[in-house]
Design brief:
alpha+beta; two-stranded antiparallel ribbon; globular; 23% strand
Length: 155
C-alpha cells in the first residue's frame, strides 16, 4: 500500500504480518495480545495503580514492577515487563501464549512469560515498609530491584 506524505513523497507500507499464534488478537488499544487473561490483568493492574492517590504515570518503574509481580503471581511463572513513554518495537521469545502489549495513560506496556522459567520467591519479592499501610511499596536494600528485570531484554 502507498500513501502520499508531505511534499508528495510516496511511502510504501508492507502488508500486515500474520499474528504469531491463532489465539492472538488486536486488543482495543491496537496492539497484539495472545492471552485475554493477561490483557485483562494488565489493564486491571494499571487501573488499580491509577486509583492510588500518590501514583504518578511517570513512575514507569512502579508500573513495570507491579505488572511483573501481578503476572508472576497470577500465572505462577516468570515474566518480563517493559514500560515506556513512547511506543517501541520488540523481538522476544515467550512461553505459550503469554504475551501482551497495551497502551494506557500514554504508557506503552509489554508483558511476556519468559521462555524458560526463572520464577522463584526472590523474583516476586517486594517488601512493605511498616509505614506503608496504604499498599505503597518500598524498594531498596533487601528487595528485588526490578530495574534489572525490566531492562534485561534491552541488552
Amino acid at each position: 500500500a502507498a500513501s502520499a506524505g508531505k511534499g508528495g513523497v510516496n511511502y510504501y507500507y508492507p502488508p500486515r504480518q500474520a499474528l504469531p499464534l491463532p489465539k492472538c488478537f488486536h486488543n482495543p488499544t491496537g496492539y497484539i495480545c495472545c492471552n485475554e487473561e493477561l490483557n485483562d490483568l494488565m489493564v486491571q493492574t494499571y487501573q488499580d495503580l491509577e486509583q492510588k492517590p500518590k501514583f504518578h504515570p511517570c513512575n514507569v518503574h512502579l508500573i513495570a514492577t507491579r505488572l511483573q509481580l501481578n503476572a508472576q503471581r497470577h500465572f505462577n511463572t516468570s515474566f518480563e515487563t517493559l514500560v515506556g513513554y513512547q511506543d517501541f518495537a520488540q523481538k522476544i521469545n515467550f512461553r505459550g501464549d503469554m504475551v501482551c502489549k497495551i497502551e494506557l495513560g500514554n504508557r506503552y506496556m509489554l508483558a511476556y512469560a519468559t521462555d524458560t522459567d526463572a520464577y522463584n520467591e526472590g523474583l516476586g519479592g517486594y517488601k512493605k515498609s511498616k509505614r506503608a499501610a496504604n499498599d505503597e511499596f518500598e524498594f531498596g536494600a533487601g528487595t528485588w530491584d526490578s530495574w534489572h528485570s525490566v531492562h534485561s531484554s534491552l541488552v
